[in-house]
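Replying to the earlier thread about multi-chain prediction with a worked example.

Input:
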Amino acid sequence: MSFIEILQILLQGAGYTLLITFSCAATALVVGLAIAMARELGGAWISAVLSAWVYVFRGVPMLVLLFVVFFGLPGVGLDVPPLLAMMLSLGFISGAYLSEVFRGALAAINPNEVLAAQAMGFTRFETLRLIKLPQMLRFSVPGMINELTTVLKYSPFAYTVGLPEITKQAMALVATTMRGIEIYVAIGLIYFAIYRLLLSFVRLIEKRYAVPGFAEE
Amino acid sequence: MRRRDLIASFAIALAFAAVGGCGKQEGGATSKVINVAVTPASPPNLFEENGQTKGLDYDLFDGYCKARGCTMAITAYDWQGMLGAVVSKKADVAFSGISITEPRKKVMDFSKPYMDNSWNLVSMKSRNIKLANLDTLKNYSIGIARGTAYTDFIKTELEPKGIYKVDQLKLYPTNSEALTDLQNGQVDLVFLDGTVASVYRKKLPIQDSYVFEGIDRLGFAFPKGSQLRVDFDKYLDELGPEKRQAIIDKWMK
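Result:
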């Protein structure tokens, strides 16, 4: 079996890896944004609840949460399909991390701009939508790329719930061929290629929405 | 290798206790499609070749399905996921050379043992290490995959008799790494399941230095209270020991 053939077999799982990465990253983005916005708009009570939420989801190990969602919820009558289980575990954990990235980005916004907006009679929601959010998203790009990469590298957990992604192909192949080093090198190359793809995609968006002179030294 | 997840299965059991653990009763032999959970990294019991699921365990269950007119819907999980699928009743049966152990019996039902599994201490042929008994074992370094039942075996059986200390073991993530180090000459002996050893003997210049017999038996795993298990046991009886042995020999020889 040549290295190219190994790559071909492994690539059969690449579609699932991409699907898992994108759906979990999308979930994380929605969850992270929702938490960040609710923290901004809500009162002290909501803020405390969300802090507790973030605390729990940042602390719980991925595999534990995945087991509880996928194998535990059927016990109370909720049958969760594998991809949804990944979104509810990896997506939610990553969303908690992202919300902290967003919190940091919000703190970096010049408070005088917010003050000026308030002086102009902007409501809290308008201030968030027009002043804070556009800057926050741009500030948090490096943190978001980090988090997206983490989601990609956590995607092999999907094999635990029966999604045949790249790592599953690799483990099945190693077991019959005993050529672990070549196969894991191949898998590393594929993950690197996907990472590069994600990076280019994010850079493209970053460029598209770049404001000249903003956040540049 | 097959027991690396004692902790994991325990964690699953805990997770279940936490969420209430009640579940729907599955149809058993009456349902025509049987949800099967496997780990295709367990040759010769179960593996994949050109995208096809194959192996000793597959042949046995395929025989059952042909006799009873059912079809298999196979999902590949990793080892922990496969056991979790059975415990949570997502799968009706799991097979991939699963050892019957006491902790597992608490959360799942097993079929009758369908084969004995030995534990082999293997070495490189070039070293020609042959152990007639265990007296000289302590002079060699042993590599094992982390979390396997071998550690327990050494702690409870060998250490009290002064044969070998758990501290002397070299631990590796999986068999593959242990065998790589064996080839590199960093470790003298590696603990493998008999089934696994039979496969690797064909791929690597290794030999058995010592074989522990009669410790380990393999079974098909079913959810607690499974009717399918009762019928499958009946099928194993119908099949008889000769035909069963013929299937085992086909894959082991």
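The interface with chain B takes residues 12, 63-64, 67-68, 70-76, 159-162, 164, 168, 171-178, 180-181 of chain A (CB under 8 Å).

Feel free to reuse this layout for your own posts.
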